[in-house]
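Quick one: structure tokens for this chain, please?
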Amino acid sequence: MTTQKKWGKEDDAKLFALFRQVNGGLDPNNADLKSVKAAHQKFFHEREYKNFGPLYRKKASEFLVGAELGDSRKRCKSDSNGLSHSW
């Protein structure tokens, strides 16, 4: 019996790169069963699905929150009057 290695930083990097990829990548906004199974089969087939499904949804949420925070930081930095926002 073989044991599967734990999800690590390399796996995060691969998944987040696929989220960032426009053509042929993955849409983090679409985490329905069909899309998650397709992503598993195409890019992470060496992993068990029962572990991949919940992890994919969690990582997609983290990616989306990080992207939103990054955008708000960019908007704050580009503020022409130099004042920081209080939100």
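Helices lie at 9-20, 33-43, 49-77.
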